[in-house]
Amino acid sequence: MKTSLLVLYLLFLSGCTNMSVEQYQNNKPRLVLEDYFLGQTRAWGIFQNRSGQVERQFTVDILGKMVEGALVLEEDFIYADGTLDRRVWTINRIDEHHYEGRAADVIGHATGEAYGNTLNWAYTLDLPYKDGTVKVQFDDWMFLQEDDVLINRAKMTKFGIFLGEVTLVFKRL
Fold it and tell me: Which of 33, 111, 153, 167 has the most CB atoms within 10 Å of its CB?
């Protein structure tokens, strides 16, 4: 019985295809992080647990500036319960399509790949949890829309197990 369930699970996983960021290469408007996030941006977001229930709501005020060739994003989070948080990203363009980013609570570095209006951003975040922290993997997909609206969906996993999803809508100010 266990073997049958394992085979079914593996067949299910093999049937799932991963999106490829290259498939969006002809989509417009073109997303260039250094252009989009330069200056002031605001985002509105929610975190949904694995059953889809909204557990947190928040806004983020972002100041983007170029420092020694890198994009620095100062993100100030304001949660609905009044909690404040801050993350500062330093993002470097590696080549036409690839980015690398660092932040104090990111383990190692984030990697990004951009084509057309789309960016796929992957990283491990050391999130506060109860009296400590937990390392969680993020798989972000950002899609630039008309009128400077950027939509971000981020899947959170731990050991490959789906934990929840963060949805953000960014608007340049």
Answer: 33
Q: What is the pLDDT of residue 1?
A: 52
The strand pair at 39-49 and 132-144 is best described as unpaired
pLDDT, average across residues 151-156: 98
CATH of region 30-172: 2.40.128.20
154: Cβ–Cβ under 8 A, 6 or more apart, which residues?
138, 139, 140, 141, 165, 166, 167, 168
Domain boundaries, the chain: 30-172
Tell me what pLDDT residue 93 has: 97
Q: Find out whether the peptide bond into 29 is cis, omega within 30 degrees of 0.
A: yes
Residue 130 Cα distances to 21, 102, 127, 133, angstroms: 35, 24, 10, 7
Q: What is the pTM of this model?
A: 0.87
